[in-house]
Design goal:
single chain; 2 domains; 5-stranded parallel beta sheet; binds flavin-adenine dinucleotide
Length: 413
């Protein structure tokens, strides 16, 4: 099969998009890999390796390998900070986009970190991977205050290298594609509306926040005062398996991810007392069973989902739940509570599906391109967590399967 002269656009540069771009380029296609944020790697690149004495097959290292391989391939052109605006209805597709030039000049930035210290919004400035695969500091337009009311320029004013230019403009561009692969991934559930105090109590954090804390400090430090957290609670299924929220599905990755994280924390902090509140433990995959057996002996597993979290006068967190053993309401105190947030459809699925003239699945995830109920427009393919919650290994397989379908389609057309 020969697709040497074909041009393919891959929308979304998480582990799925990176895998697909690299594999398509390996088949000889010219690939435009379009990523809306300044960073490559999506969610998977933000995860910690959970190995303690041996590999626990969490998959976190896969994203970095895929990133390096895709960005080094001469047939892959990477567009970061790029938003698709229109896609013409006929093949080859004409795609128009807007590309935002980076707000931090990578040549001038020396990585001193002063911008991180001065920024008043947590997560608005972050470190990630640039189009060439190397480390990179970038500002997220969706979180930065400058892009809400132009009132805050603290990082720009403080940067000793003058590397930050908040007023840089977007430019329009066009590209052509014989086929398009949509790999827009998922959105983590935002638990601000739950009665757990997220956004109010600094020591109530999400699982993604916990990944970031563990990268920054090795041990789990409390955001409120920087002290190592001795008593840590994980609450599972926050925003998943919740019909009232309209998210009845299991997000699949959370049990494995939280319990591996608990084990990593205990390996670094022997005195850490960890409690996991859960509905039931989903041990998908043959690799997780032995890991789970070794973990559960050292963790208090409580089969209950807490109703409320309160903050005490001494800045502890009081978790209130219905104890299944005593059949009574119970309270336990913790230093930090990690909410294992569910995987929801990517925010852009709806708008993108409309641009493509396609209907998303009723859940909001994109249908698989082979779906009979939601047939895709010709030449449009999907892969990865854009189609539903999945692990990194499953995302890689899904990318490879979709690439195979694309190659067959492009060879035949
Ligand atoms: C807290 C947490 C812990 C996890 N732990 C594990 C684990 O231990 N093991 C495991 O196997 N999995 C784990 N996962 C799941 C893992 O993150 C996913 O399997 C993986 O990220 C899916 O990759 P993806 O590329 O499909 O989606 P994503 O990682 O979501 O990447 C999608 C990319 O598309 C981009 N994008 C979205 N819309 C557009 C658009 N319109 N235009 C251009 N770009 C766009 C996004 O910015 C993003 O870069 C975890 C997830 C979470 C939240």
């Amino acid at each position: 099969m020969n697709i040497d002269r074909k041009h393919v656009a891959v929308i979304g540069a998480g582990v799925t998009g990176l895998t697909a771009a690299d594999t398509l380029a390996g088949w000889g296609a010219r690939v435009s890999l379009v990523e809306k944020t300044p960073f490559l790697g999506g969610h998977a690149i933000q995860l910690n390796c959970k190995a303690t004495d041996a590999c626990v097959k969490c998959g976190a290292c896969v994203a970095e390998d895929k990133l390096l391989s895709a960005t080094r391939h001469p047939h892959v052109d990477v567009y970061t900070g790029t938003q698709i605006e229109t896609i013409s209805g006929q093949r080859p597709y004409q795609i128009t986009y807007r590309i935002h030039s980076p707000l931090v000049n990578a040549d001038q930035c020396d990585g001193c970190g002063i911008c991180f210290e001065t920024c008043p919004v947590s997560g608005a400035i972050s470190q990630g991977h640039a189009p060439h695969g190397g480390p990179y500091v970038a500002i997220r337009r969706d979180l930065c205050r400058y892009f809400q009311d132009a009132a805050c320029t603290e990082c720009q004013d403080a940067c000793p290298q003058g590397a930050i230019g908040l007023s840089s403009q977007a430019q329009a561009g066009t590209m052509q594609a014989d086929a398009i692969l949509v790999t827009t991934g998922f959105t983590p559930y935002d638990p601000s509306d739950k009665s757990y105090g997220y956004g109010q109590f600094l020591n109530v954090i999400t699982s993604l926040d916990a990944e970031r804390l563990l990268r920054e400090h090795t041990v789990m430090k409390r955001p409120s005062d920087g002290r190592p957290a001795g008593r840590i609670a994980f609450i599972q299924c926050v925003g998943s398996r919740d019909a009232r929220l309209g998210h009845p599905w299991c997000s699949k990755i959370c049990c494995g991810s939280s319990l591996r994280m608990a084990r990593l924390i205990q390996s670094r902090q022997e005195d850490a007392q960890i409690t996991c509140f859960y509905i039931d433990v989903q041990t998908f995959g043959k690799d997780f069973q032995p890991v789970y057996r070794s973990i559960r002996d050292n963790i208090a597993m409580v089969r209950a989902i807490p109703g409320d979290i309160l903050r005490t006068a001494t800045d502890e967190l009081e978790v209130i739940y219905f104890d299944p053993q005593s059949h009574a309401s119970k309270e336990s105190l913790f230093d930090i509570v990690v909410l294992s947030v569910g995987l929801l459809p990517a925010e852009d699925n709806g708008p993108l599906a409309r641009i493509l003239g396609w209907a998303p699945h009723e859940s909001g995830f994109l249908p698989h391109h082979g779906s009979e109920r939601h047939p895709a427009p010709e030449g449009i393919f999907t892969a990865g967590a854009a189609t539903g919650p999945m692990t990194i290994a499953e995302s890689v397989s899904s990318a490879e399967e979709s690439v195979y379908d694309m190659v067959r389609f492009l060879t035949a057309s």
